[in-house]
Amino acid sequence: MQSPQKLTQLTETHRPTLDQALEAIRTRAYWSPHPEHPKAYGESAAADGLAAFEALKNTRFDLSDQPGTDGWVGGSASEGGEVSPYGPELGVSYPHADVEVLLPAMRAGMGAWRDAGPEARAVVCLEILARISARTHEFAHAVMHTSGQAFMMALQAGGPHAQDRGLEAVAYAYAEQTRVPEAADWSKPQGKRDPLNLSKSFVAVPRGISLLVGCNTFPTWNGYPGLFASLATGNPVLVKPHPRAVLPLAMTVKAAREVLAEAGFDPNLVALAAERPDEGIAKSLALRPEIKIIDYTGSTSFGDWLEAHARQAQVYTEKAGVNTVVVDSTDDYKGMLSNLAFSLSLYSGQMCTTPQNLLIPRDGITTDAGAKSYEEVVGDLAKSVGGLLGDDARANALLGALVNPDVKARLDAAAGLGEVALPSREVTHPDFPDATVRTPVIVKLDGAKPDAEAAYMSECFGPVSFAVAVDSTTAALDLLRRTVREKGAMTVGAYTTSPEVERAIEEVCLEESAQLSLNLTGGVYVNQTAAFSDFHGSGGNPAANAALCDGAFVSNRFRTVEVRRQA
Amino acid sequence: MQSPQKLTQLTETHRPTLDQALEAIRTRAYWSPHPEHPKAYGESAAADGLAAFEALKNTRFDLSDQPGTDGWVGGSASEGGEVSPYGPELGVSYPHADVEVLLPAMRAGMGAWRDAGPEARAVVCLEILARISARTHEFAHAVMHTSGQAFMMALQAGGPHAQDRGLEAVAYAYAEQTRVPEAADWSKPQGKRDPLNLSKSFVAVPRGISLLVGCNTFPTWNGYPGLFASLATGNPVLVKPHPRAVLPLAMTVKAAREVLAEAGFDPNLVALAAERPDEGIAKSLALRPEIKIIDYTGSTSFGDWLEAHARQAQVYTEKAGVNTVVVDSTDDYKGMLSNLAFSLSLYSGQMCTTPQNLLIPRDGITTDAGAKSYEEVVGDLAKSVGGLLGDDARANALLGALVNPDVKARLDAAAGLGEVALPSREVTHPDFPDATVRTPVIVKLDGAKPDAEAAYMSECFGPVSFAVAVDSTTAALDLLRRTVREKGAMTVGAYTTSPEVERAIEEVCLEESAQLSLNLTGGVYVNQTAAFSDFHGSGGNPAANAALCDGAFVSNRFRTVEVRRQA
Questions:
Q1: Residue B303 maps to a domain
Q2: What keywords are annotated for this sequence in UniProt (chains A, B) (predicted)?
Q3: Interface ipTM > 0.95
C-alpha cells in the first residue's frame, strides 16, 4: 500500500530540488545539485565506496524479491561474467528472468503508480537519485570497472553528471504531464439559453513497460535519461544492461526497487533483465507486445533495427556518428591546441561526442601566433597531445582503459589508414597491469583523395582522429554538411576568427541539425555537455533520433486521457 | 524580403489572441475567438460567401505563382473533378505540380522562415487563420459540397471549429519552441579558480517539408492541426487534398501563400499537390527524402502503410476505430435517448467520433423511468432517432449527404447483419434532388454470438449503429476493453448511475488510453470535441497515433540547435 506519510516526506525533501530543476531547464543557466568533487561526499565516502564495491565482487547480486528468476548469469569470466577493462574479474552473478513471469509482474503496479500522479512519481524518482548520489563513490568503482573510464571520470560522468541527466528527465517529465490541469470546468455560452457545462478531468497515463538497453561505455549517463523519463511518466522500466556493464545498472535497479517499496509502490516497477552470453535478449524483448517504449544507446545497426522492427514501441536511439571539428583560424592557437588535445584524449576517445575528423585547410590557417601550415597545425596538435599525455600518471588519469578488444583492433588498424602524425603509445597502469591503456593516434588524410573517404566518412570509435587536409574552409563546410547529413554527428566544433565563416558554419549546423561548439580554448570541451543547459545530440541527424533532454524526449512516453461529465 | 513593419503590425494584431490561446490550453476552460453563429460574420457574409463559392465553380483555381505546374487536374466529373455529394459538379481545375520543381522551391524559403523565430511564425499563422475566418461562409460552401456535411455543420465544423484547432496547434507550437530561451549565459564555478563561462544560443530548426494528406469528410478540421503545427515550427507544408475534397484546402493554401508573401516570406512555404484520378501521389510523396513530416487522416490500411514505410518522416495518423457507448443505467432516460439519437444522426454518422456499438445488458437497465429491458431501450432509441429525423427539413439539416457510394453500400449491407431495430430512411433534399440523404440504421446484435462479432468488431463507417446485447455491464466492459485495444477508439461514451461502474469504466479507458464522455444527456455530444479543452483522440490506442493537440503533436516537428561559445 502507498504510504502517504512517506510521500509527504519525500515531497518536502525533494520538491525544492524539482523546482530548481524546472527553473534550470527554463533558463538553461548553470545548475547542479550533485557535487563533482569526490571529497564532497564526506570523510569516509572514498573508503566506504571502495569497500562496498569490493564486497559486491564474487557474489550473487541480491535482487531476491524480483519475480521470475529462473537461474543466474554473469559470474566468472569463463561463465561470461563481467571483467574489468582494468583486468580484474568482477565475478558478480545476476538473476536471470523468465520474462513470461517478470513482465506481468511489472505491469501489476502500474495502476497505483499512475494514480499517484506526476508529483509523487517525480519525488520518488528524486529519492532514487538521492540514494544513488549518496553512493557516488561506490558507483564510480562500478562504472570504472565496467566502462574502463578512469576513476575521476567514472565518478563525475558516472555519478553527478549521470544523476543530473536523470533529474533533468524527471523535470521534463513533470513539466510535460502538468501542462494540462488535473481538472477543468468548461462552460460554453449559448446566447440566451443556459450555457453548456462540463466538468473534465485529465490523467497522464503510461504507455506500458519501458525497456532500457544499456551501453558499455556510459551505463548510467546514457541510461538514466530514458529510465527516469519513463518511470516519471508512469511506466515500469525493464533494464537490460550491456553484458559487460551490468553492475552499475543492477545497483540502480536495486536502489529504485528499495525506494519504490518504501514509498508503498510495487518494487517490480523497475526490474533487471541480465542475460546469458550470446542470449541476445534485447532483440526478443524489443518485440514483445508489453514493451511500449525503448531507450537504446549503441551501434547504428541495432538502433536502426529497433526503429524499423519494434513498431509497437516508441523508440529512442543514440547511435554512431562522425564528429567534426572545422579549423579555420584562431586568436588563441595555444588554447585551441590544448583544448583539442584534451578532447581527443579524454577516455581514449571512447565518447560518442569525441571529435574524429579535424578539417584543416591544406594551405594552412591564420592564428595569433602567425600563419600555420597544415603540417604545422597537425604537428603542433600532435605535440600538444604528446605533452598532455607524456606523464604516465596523468595519461592514466585522462585516458582510462580501452573498453574492449574491438576498440584496440580499430586503433591498431588506424595506423595503416594514412600517414601517422602521432603514434599511439602504450601506457602502463601502476595498479592494474592488465589494463589496456593507449594514447590516441592522429592520422593524416587527404580529403580530396577518394580512398581516404572510406576512413573519414565512417565512425572509428576509439582513440583515433583524422587530420583531414581540405582545399579550403568552404570545402570543409561542404564536407561537414555531407558528414552530418549522411553519417550523423553528436557534436560539431569549429575555430574561426571570421564572422562570415562563423555564420556559414552556424548555417550548416542549423540546416543539418547539429550541436555546435565555437572557439573552445579553455576548460570546456566539445565532448562534454551539461544537463539542464546543453542538449546532448539534436535528434535531427542520423546520430540520434532524440535529444537529451527536450519536450519530445518525454511527451510521447505517456498519453493524456480525459474524462468529461455533464456538470 | 521580410517586412518588419508588416510583422510588427501582425504581432500587435494577433499577439493578444495568441496569449489567450496559450492561457486556454493551460486552463482548458471554454474559449474560442471564432464565432459559431453564421450571422456573426456580418450582414452580407452569407450572400458574399455563396457568391464567392459560386464564382469558383467551373474555373481554373488561381495558384499561378506556384512553381512547377505541369498541367491541370480536376475539372468536370468525367475528367475526375470534384462532384458535390449534393449532386452538382464543382468543375474546378487545379494546377498539377512537378514535384521535382516544386519541392526544391518549397525549401528555398526555409532559412528565412526559421530565422524569423517562433513569434513571427505564430502571428503569420494567425493572420492566415484570420483571413480564412473572414471567409467562413465561402469555406462553408466549399466544405459542404466536398464533404456532404449539411450547411450549418460545414460552417461550424469546417469554419470556426477547424480554425480553433489550427490556432490551438499554433499555440502549442509556440509554447514548445519557447520553452528554451533564445540565449543563456552559463557560468560554472570552479572553486578558487575563475568560473567556466559560455554564452549559448538556441534555435528551433525545422525538420523539412511537411506533407498533409487530407481527408474527404473534414478537409479543414482534420487538416488544420498538422498544417499549422508544421508551419508554425518552421516547416514548409505541401498540402495533398483528398481528390474529392480539394477546394477547401486549395482555398487554404491560397490564403496562406498570400499572407506569407505580404509578410515578406516565400509563398512557396505552403503549396498544393492536387492529383490526377488514380495517380496515388500520396504514396510516392510520402517516401520522398525531402518529406520529413506527414499528417494523415483516413483508412487504417494507408495509415499503417505510412507508419511502416515513410521511415524518413515523423508520421501522425488518425485512422479507423470502433467507438463504443456502454449503457448501464441512467437517471435521465429521456436525456440519454435524445443525446444518443443526435450523436448517431449528426452528419449521418460519418464522423470518426460517432458511436458505433451501443453495449446494452440483455437483462435491461435501471432508469429514472423504471427498469427498461434491452428491447425497450433499443426500441425507445429507435423511436428517439425516428422522432429527431421525422421532419425532412430537420433531417436534412442534421444528416447532410452521404459522402460517397462506399458509405451507401455499407449502409445497405448493414440491414443484413442482424435484426433491424430502426430501418434507414431515404430523405429528399428540397434543393439538391441528387443528394443521397439517409437516416441511420440501428441493427440488433447478440454480443455472445461469434457470428455477430465480425460485424461489431470492425468499423462500419457511416450511419450504422449496432445495439449489442451483452450479458452484463461487466461483459460490456470486457468487450469495451477488447474493442479499444484491438480496434482503437476515438471516443467512448457511458451511462451509469453507479459509482462503482463509473470507476470501472474509467479504469478501462485509462488503461486502454481512450477519451471518455460520461452521462451526456444535454447539448454536448460524445462525437464533438472542443479545441483548447478537449483532446481529440489519445494517440494511445490503434485509432490514432497522435492526439489533437498536445505537446507530443508539436515537439518532434522541430529540433533545437544550440551554438555555444566561450564567453
A1: yes
A2: NAD, Oxidoreductase
A3: yes
